[in-house]
Design brief:
- Helix content is 32%, strand content 26%.
- With 327 residues, the protein is of the alpha+beta class.
- The protein has 3 domains: 2-59, Arc Repressor Mutant, subunit A, CATH 1.10.10.10; 66-271, 2-Layer Sandwich (BirA Bifunctional Protein, domain 2), CATH 3.30.930; 278-320, SH3 type barrels (Roll).
- Strands 3-4-5-9-8-7-6 form a 7-stranded mixed β-sheet, sandwiched between helices. Strands 13-12-11-10-14 form a 5-stranded antiparallel β-sheet, with no helix packed on it. It has a two-stranded antiparallel ribbon with strand order 1-2.
- A hairpin with a 2-residue loop joins β7 (178-181) and β8 (184-196).
- The relative contact order is 0.11.
Length: 327
Amino acid sequence: MKAKIQEILLKNQDSYVSGEEISRRLGISRTAVWKYINNLREEGFGIKSVPNKGYRLEKIPDRLDPVLLRHCLLTRKLGQAIEIHEAIDSTNTRAKELAQTGAPHGTLVAAEEQIKGRGRLGRSWESPPGTGIWMSLILRPSFPPRFAPRITVIAALAAVKAISSITGLDAAIKWPNDIIINYRKVCGILTEMQADPDLIEYAVLGMGINVNTESFPAELVNSATSLYLESGARTDRCRLLAGILGFFEGIYEKYEDTGDFTDILKEYKERCITLGQRVRVVSASGEFEGIAEGLTQDCELIVVSDNGMKHTVLSGDVSVRGICGYV
């Protein structure tokens, strides 16, 4: 019932809604309405009350909240099922549990804090409470497993588009899965899947974004940043998350409908600051340096090493000179 009152106030932010009107719509007493209003105030909602006028929502707290998120969402499938936690070990781990029990395509798991957040290559990911977006999305693709890396490409494009659209910041992509602003990392992406040789049972797209983080430990100052540190302003996290889901759904569904990845890869290349740069590649087969020349249709990085040999890199640690502290 509290969520329904929250929805009514969100839809009428420019006007007052009387307690009598709310009680009539929901079939509850005005005393019950008053109690729910006070509960929302305790959660950080600024609700003004005026005799003979009613209630008006004046302030929305900075929190990940299912009702607030749904109010921002314009998607058809993504985020229609939402699970939000105050704290969780890993949203990817939880999303995989849900996927294995049949959770539908588009199910979203998010958290205010991740205790054991993971990045690519098994690295830990700093996920402090109340400052970022730590989320995982369950996908059930129709394309074969060999095209799974394309999910990360689509996610990276969705992230830079949403960040640029909402904050005005110039975000770029570092191959394959990092979002960079002013040479420092603001977002990481991790895609995992359960698949048979010819069929993806499910994929879990994980994303961590430093949104309103005000400072970082000394060891991360040269490699990490946040939207707040870059813009000087706080960003509405629900609005940003909804924006990412909206951009992702548009690109993803177009690809699923047509099977044509050409334009998506072209735009990814245009936004990828790795290409044309000197890089250092560390993989299971060894370490080498060279120039990142391009990408294959399977999203592998093409690197020409100093001895002139051409390499295709699908996995491994790729550092770009001048970015995230690599000199």
